[in-house]
Amino acid sequence: MMVSTKVFLLACFAFLSFAGFAWNLAMWSLLTGLAVLIIAVLYLHRCAWPERLPPRGKSVFITGCDSGFGNATAKHLDALGIQVFAGCLFPGGEGASRLRAECSDKLCVIPLDVTEQEDVDAAIATITKSTGDEGLWGVVNNAGICLWSRLEVTPMETIQQHLDVNLLGQIRIVKATLPLLRKSRGRVISINSTNSYFYMTLFGAYGISKAAAEMFSNVLRLESRKWGIQVITIHPGGFRTGLVTNLNSMRQYLQKCNDQLSADLKQYYTPEYFQAMLDNNGASTLPTDLSPVCRTVTTALLERAPSTCYRCGPFAGVMVRSAQFLPTPLFEFFVRNSKLFNKELKVLIRIRSKMTVNSRSLAFLRYR
What we know:
Keywords: Oxidoreductase
Number of strands: 7
Organism: Acanthaster planci
Protein name: Estradiol 17-beta-dehydrogenase 2-like
GO biological process, one term: steroid metabolic process
Pfam family, one: adh_short
CATH class of the domain at 59-246 and 283-318: Alpha Beta
């Protein structure tokens, strides 16, 4: 009898334990589901109806406004009623003249070479005098250069030039504008590149400078948080801007690369090679509509709770995610089989095949 009672009690205990476990599991599942639903609703609400700050009364400093993203963004923000200080490398050039002709009287063209501290100081003096105690709401680091060639033939001064403009130029501008941004608890927006993550042949100097600029923005974000300054990066995909369409500049650069080659390297990189690089730059396939970048900059400036990073343009998200998450051998396989890489490689193979080499060297070049 006692044995039966013990068995019964154990059975009851087991049943109650299982029932309690099932109840807890059901409750936790319900609470988790509700939490996920609430987060999804809030996220969709933010995406569909983002809270925007009023543009009126705000001032923004943009670098690199001679053409491309800077020129288009300056016009876009001016149309919204924002006071724009447009830094131009050539204040008497065509781009600056278009800004003066097409924008309101509030837009101010400022002579600016981001590699010259005197230019930066003079620009800040002009902005400080205009904004007074209100400070500056935003600075958009846009000025940049992109000269592409294999690292082996890239002159050291070209690598230094990329660092001076794309990295040190951003640092000069930010260090000079932080006192003005602190007054308004404003925003630093840096137009970097998918090449900060997506590395590929020919764009070594550019990618190195942009990756360093990305690190600068990340560290600055941590350090500026206590002042209420938000730091945001934008990674555009490929667009047809002056960086890729200025064929005269590119022709001069490739000629410079050719002139500085050693006798040994000239066997591999002939004038035919450099001409092929100029003819097959792929710029004609890129979109000319820059409005996605303009809208993204506006979102970063005016959204009440902006993201720390935005990507816009053709395949920008895919490019960055593939570099971040694909295994390195697989990622590099796709890069090696890209159109630009294949065109360059075919020229190298054709040049190499004309030389007297053993078959092993030729096979190495063909499949590297």
